[in-house]
Amino acid sequence: MSATGATVLAPAHPAGARTGLLPQLVLALLCGGYTTGAALGWGSDELALFMGDFGLSAASVAAAVSALLYARRRPGPDRPAWILFAFSSAMLAAGNAVWGWYEVVLREPVPRTSAADFCFLMFAPPAVIGLLVLAKRPVTRAGWVCLALDTWLIGGSLLTLSWSLALARTAQLDGPSTARTALSLAYPLLDIVLVSMVLALHFRRSAANRAAVNTAIAALALTVLCDALFTSPLLRAHYRSGQVLDAGWFAGALLMAYAPWVGAHVRDHAPRRPPGATSRKVAGSFTALAPYLAAAVCTLGILYDVITGEKCNRVVLFTGCTVVMALVVRQGIMLLDNITLTQELAQKESHFRSLVQGSSDVIMIAAPSGVLRYVSPAAQGVYGRDPEELVGTELAAHIHPEDLGRVVHEVRRFLAAPPGDEPATRIECRIRSGHARDGREGWLHVESSVNRYQSGLIFNSRDVTERVRLQAQLQHNASHDPLTDLPNRALFTERLGKALGGRRAGDGRAAVLYVDLDGFKAVNDTAGHQAGDDLLTQAARRLQETLRSGDTAARLGGDEFAVLISGPASGSRHDEVREQQIREIADRLRTALSRPYRVEGGEVRVGASIGIALARSGDTPSELMRNADLAMYRAKQAGKGRVELYAPQLQAEVVRRTELAGRLRKALHEGELTLLHQPVVELAGGRITGVEAHPRWRSAGGFASTPADFLHGPETPDDGGERALEPSRWLLEQAVEQAALRYDAGHRLPVTVRLSTRRLFHRELPAGTVESLLDRHELPAGCLVLELAGGDPHVPHEELGRRLSGLRHRGVGIALGGFGRGHGALAALRALPVDVLKLDRCFVEGLGVPPPKGGGETGRARTITRALLRIAQDLGIRTVADGVDRPEQVHALRELGCAQGVGMAFAGPLDEHRLRGSLARGHYPVPAAETAREQVGSCGPPPRPRRSHDETPVPPA
Question: What gap in Å lies between CA 681 and CA 687, rounded to an integer?
């Protein structure tokens, strides 16, 4: 029992004792007072007669009323018994009342034969039947026969002894009248039967309400004892009401009145007794000795007649013979019963031995000293050890030393607990095995059910080694990656939390490296997923081989890994030295991961982009991993195969982009986005050859976006561009829809839509999206030009070329935007199918300005621009200049060979109404060469140039 349970239950016993103490004191005071009064003669003869008659009657009435109330309030299987006891007590009350009527009221002697005799005779039968109801009933016919024989053995022996001592003289004193003799003998004989039943049933009573039954038996026994004394001729001749003998009847009546209620206190407050108490041993001893005691009593009765020289009475002789015959019959029944029980016991023992020997569990019996007394044969198969060798050894010698203390503690706790509260316990430990593995001593994981056995213990043990291994494997699988066997995200986060919050040297100064393999997707797509899995396994092995013993490498998913650097390698706490050491570790990892991999019989190469986040005060595991992820994303953007250290401005940039993405989505759903178009003009004659679509965002706060916001702004490493793709899809759909409307109106000019390479290859914009959009709006493919604005290092030129070739084959024009930087370089021009080359505005801004002496930057820019235009001309690619904002730029570009231009020199982005007007005119005036030269050679500061993305002012109405 736990300490808490002991504290709660401890006060119950004194409370119960106090509750039952008051009735016992009252009972003792009443009995003592009555006995004292009887011993002193009550002070007068009249009071003595009254107390001897009506006092006994009142006590019996109290017993009858008490038994009836108990039977009414607590129904149950014992209820008929208490009703019978009430009837028996009522008969005693009636008999004593008749005596009082004669002696107190009528003041005359009680007749030899009266109604009181009938009442007293009716006392014993109900009591006998009530005892039978309370007794534990036999379940077999032989049991009922044995009960009857035991009753007769006791009753016959008492009759023999009583007849020899008193009953024979009583029969002689009553004269020759048969009726008077029968009446004189009936009462003592019924008492003998009652005493026999009391003695026979005392040790057969049921466990329910045992205290009440014991008290009732004591009351009946005391009443019968007083009856026996009253039957004696010596006492009967001098008996008068109110004497001390009446005190015994009075006490018996009060005990009967108290009997039913004492059981409630015992049930509620008495401590539980474990099975196998002392009363069972006494009951077994009495049952075994009862026949011999009965025979001994009969012998004493006959010996009394012989010693006194009297002739052996026929009643004594007949009773003794019947007792002997009953003893013989009973012994015969017991002999047959014993033979049957012996056979059943042997059969059960055989079954038990078969079960024990055939059980796969090992059953061991240990003595209180810990020495093994018995070990089942299953130990040979389970432990690999001979059971005979284990017997006589100490159990502790076979338990693993690391588990011994825990096992001893549990056994001591189990033995200290009450058996009723904890009949068994369960212990799991390691047991020495005889099956050696690799020359080393083997241990088995064993689970044992432990039960008490006599003064020792029984261990029912089974081998659970495989279960323990499976549980360990499941726990390992739950915290490790199944492919690489590296810790997974959950275990890595747990270890990172311990490193950040630990108290060891170096704790709190940890660093996280976020590793992403560059080019892994291409390996999966070309060599297959099995080759990708092999590559990941090799990469994980290289991570573990490169790291120090105290560091942790984990696979987060896909081709992403994380590394926990627990502390500086040299223990230095200087931030600069610490950062340098972490960078060196990251560079070693990048170099190791970038070496060629042997996969599917060939070699493949992948790179590694690594982001570093150094732990700062107050950082949580999630924050540190997020910072490392941002740094890795920056390494990806910077060209892959790099190591980048996290800086706070990275988080600020992510926040800005996230806010911008949210604003764009909100603007899209609230209709704040609009589409403007800027004409593409032929530089030679001013003819409009096409339009460029430019989205605009006018929010309630006056914020206006530029095309760059749609192309690059909203992407973050967390969303992969999903939120930015929605405005880009809107731009493409709106541009195609409005171009189709203009086409139907007769303005059959192509519209140019700018998309980044990443948006073109996004999974939310799959292949066929552009084609289906053209089909839905019935716009010829030649009326759409896709301008690739900037490149993406994640998309290889080969894959981009295949996608663009499919669109070009359909008729969609392909323009290479920003030519001269990024993916507008010569390598992209060689690999990609391009129809239009759009010269970047950085080459246009310096044109038309007189070059300084010696050429300078402007002269070099002019030379490079001429070379780029010549290359496009030789390849047959149409050229368009971006940012043509001044007339001198128009003249300079025309001289260099550029065919078309877009800029404020002609018009800015226009709304649909003004665009339709411009398209109706069909051209813009081209500035003359003289005007351009005059503007270039004029003195004074030039006017502020209007940029090509400025909106054309709307003239007042």
Answer: 6
